[in-house]
What we know:
Elements: H1 9-19, H2 26-36, H3 45-64
Amino acid sequence: xxxxxxxxxxxxxxxxxxxxxxxxxxxxxxxxxxxxxxxxxxxxxxxxxxxxxxxxxxxxxxxxx
Length: 65
């Protein structure tokens, strides 16, 4: 039987955030770019995923406090 490594706290958080990623419409991505001072370009799938994880993290911060 293989040893299963225990996940670190950050790996657990990343897994939790990945499960709760919202689907973001274009206007929400544009809004996030404006809020963070990021130049908006049409995102590729990786960039879109980062925005979804960021939105999930923001939501977690708002609901856990």
